Amino acid sequence: MGTTTYTYDDFMKKATDSGLWDSMSDADKALAEKNPNAGMSILQYRLDYSKATTDEAKALAHEGAERIRKQYGGYSGGVNGSGYYLQDASPSSYVSEDTPTYESTYADQIKSALDTIANREDYQSSYGQQIQDALARITQADPFSYDAASDPLFQSYAKQYRREGERATADALGSAATLTGGIPSSYAMTAANQAGNYYATQLSDKVPALAEAAYGRYRDQQTQNQNTLETLMGLDNADYQKYIDALGFDYDDLNMLLSLDESDYERFKNELAQYNTDRDFNYEQWLDELYYQSDQAEIAQNQKNYEEELALTQQEAAADANQTAYENELTKALYAAEYLGDYSLLKKLLGRS
To answer: Residue 86 belongs to what H/E stretch?
Structure first.
């Protein structure tokens, strides 16, 4: 069965209803306010005392109330419970200081730092598509090949040499016609063909140089593509490093806060360990004092019992002595009355002198 828990209002109501409120000491009321259950116990003993019909019952009720006062308040109520007498070195109830508790000073900052890290977006490159395009221009470039027909420079040379060849052919035919009086001859035709072929040969001789120049342009374009790719990757790496640095700063902040919090927690554990050590020490002292007070109370009670038994024995011995003396006097008085006819001693014993 559970123990009933009372309030100070319960104590005041019962004390008022029972008519004992005004007769209760300030010390009993103060104890009841601090410990309502102790107050209700004292009040019940006071009621038992008021209803007791024998001295023994009154003594038991008073002793019960005194025990509560000493145990929970460290004082005595005196003979009738209305006074206040502090008990020296009384341990009363053991009460320790509140147990230390830990509450992180950095909890909100740690949560904020974690949120910053958790909510930081993944790195997104500003140059991703440009890098892909530059890489494609390198890896997907066609192998070098030279087609003179599609080379604008070759076409320019072809027009020039064709024009020069045609002019040389015409000049050769004109010179030959002058020598022959305007009559075409095989010599004139041969000279004209040779002049045209010369320029055609000159054009053909230009092809290797033009192909080399085209390869140079191809190679330069590839080099430029490679340089462009490296530049874009360098810019992207720089941005990524900034991202990594910012993330590192976030983790540095978090680790610093965690370190500070851990230091505080270590101090708390040390305080808690010291608190437990002090509490155990104080509790042992309290127990020692409680046992000492209990032993002293037992010794005092034994002494009281001894004195009461001694007094009772002495009273009984005195009563027995008085009874014996009375019986002796009565024997003498009866003897004197019966054998001597002297009734004076008997009348004196019966109070009829």
So the answer is: strand 85-86
pLDDT at 189: 54
Residue type, 305: N
Instruction: State whether the Cα torsion 138-142-143-148 is positive or negative.
Output: negative
Q: How confident is the model at residue 80 (pLDDT cuts 50, 70, 90)?
A: low
Q: What is the pLDDT of residues 136-181, one digit of tens each?
A: 988 888 888 877 777 787 777 767 666 665 565 556 555 655 555 5
Contact yes or no for 91/286 (Cβ under 8 A): yes
Q: What share of the chain is helix, strand, coil (3-state, %, to 5)?
A: 75, 0, 20
For residue 146 the two structure tokens come to: 């030279």
Tell me if 27 sits within 8 A of 18, measured CB to CB: no
- Which pairs count as long-range contacts for 277-286, CB under 8 Å and 24+ apart, including other chains? 279/96, 279/97, 282/94, 282/96, 283/94, 283/96, 286/91, 286/94
With a CB cutoff of 8 Å and minimum separation 6, the contacts of 94 are: 282, 283, 286
